[in-house]
Amino acid sequence: MWGGRFTKGRSAIPELPEVETIRRELSPWLTGRIILSANLVDASPGPKYANLERAVSQRIMTVKRRGKFLLLPLDKGDELIVHLGMTGIISPTAPKKHLRVKLELNPGENSTLYFQDTRRFGRFLLVPAGQYQSLPTLAAMGPEPLSKDFNPGQFQKALQASATAIKTYLLSQKPVAGVGNIYADEALWRSRIHPLSPAKQVAKRQIPLLLNAIKEVLTESIAAQGTTLNDYRTVNGDLGSFRNRLKVYGHENEPCPNCGDVIERIVIAGRSTHYCPRCQKAHKEVKR
Predict the structure, then answer these.
(1) pLDDT value at position 130?
(2) CA count, 13 A, side-chain hemisphere, 23
(3) 62 or 109, higher pLDDT
(4) 163 shares its domain with 270
(5) Which positions are catalytic?
(6) What is the structure's pLDDT at 11?
(7) 265: phi then psi, degrees, rounded to nearest 5
(8) Could you list the residue range(s) of the whole structural domain that residue 212 is in?
(9) Which of 35, 199, 17 is nearest to 124 (CA)?
(10) Which end of the chain has fewer CB atoms at under 10 Å, N or C?
């Protein structure tokens, strides 16, 4: 059972495991469906909701993911880009409030897609196929963590490029895609790296440990359908159960599962960060 407290700010959930869970649920539902109408509801046209009218009469070819983004290629040369932000939910069931986008699909089971977003940090827009790299976050994104491209040699080279705190650098998406606040804390704890250690000063022997910890924690969370702390739900409305397996995130002032010392919480670049001061001894701290 979950024993920690989620306090002092919100997480960047959904992260990769949550978005991958949603992708897997969307794929059999949306692949091959034709978009009959695309309407904004309580949302203004702009960069976050651009060009949706062009999606009408196009067929959804597949559902892909890049980092924390969903990519839906369409058959006439466009691509829907969806980012859930902090509170975005995709569902076949109409929400009672905070509906932003409504897609009508060709007749069949669950013929309407609803995009709900309480805090309006999400995106639901259309771009020409292959031009999603025009979005700055996607353009700068590192390799997928569960791909062969994410390997010790590449990871070491990426870390050598930055003197910022390793926690901050992981969140930038530049060394590896899809890792957010929760899974960065968990991976750094597993590999015994202090979150304030400069990225370029992470010991060479620790780099494969961190790489494997990232892969492991993401894989385990995907198997648990992600982590639900507040808003995140799967397409089917289920909760992610990995919350019950978090070791440090949200466990401030509780004993470390590894050594029994007290888990501490600090703020790095405006983000809550949880770590064990005994297991994760600082190599050389940088500015928070």
Answers:
(1) 76
(2) 22
(3) 62
(4) yes
(5) 14-15, 68, 271
(6) 56
(7) -120, 130
(8) 152-275
(9) 35
(10) N
Q: Are residues 238 and 124 in the same domain?
A: no
Task: Give which of 14, 9, 11 is closest to 178, Cα–Cα.
Answer: 14
The chain-wide mean pLDDT, for the chain, equals 92
**HEC string of 134-152?**
HCHHHHCCCCCCCCCCCCH
- What are the phi and psi torsion angles at 206 (to 5°)? -85, -15
Distance separating alpha carbons of residues 116 and 11, to the nearest angstrom: 18
Q: Yes or no: say if 183 and 171 are a contact pair by the CB < 8 Å rule.
A: no
Residue entry with tokens 């606040």: 181
Lowest mean pLDDT among 106-110, 180-184, 246-250: 106-110
Residue 165 is inside which H or E element, if any? Answer: none
Q: Which residues of 87-115 are buried (b: 16+ CB within 10 A; e: fewer)?
A: bbbbbeeeeeebbbbebebeeeeeeebbb
| Nearest in space to 4 (alpha carbons), one of 270, 256, 267 | 256
Instruction: Kindly state the DSSP code that residue 34 receives in the 8-state scheme.
Output: B
In this structure, are 102 and 166 located in the same domain? no
Ramachandran assignment for 37, one of left (phi > 0), alpha (psi -120 to 50 degrees), beta (any other): beta
Decide if 26 is inside a domain. Answer: no
- Three-state secondary-structure class, residue 241: strand
Nearest to 192 by CA among 218, 210, 171, 204: 210
The structure tokens 């440990």 sit at 209
CA angle 45, 29, 176 (to 5 degrees): 70
* 249 pLDDT above the threshold of 60: yes
Quick check: is 73 in a domain?
yes
Tokens of residue 179, six digits: 């890792």
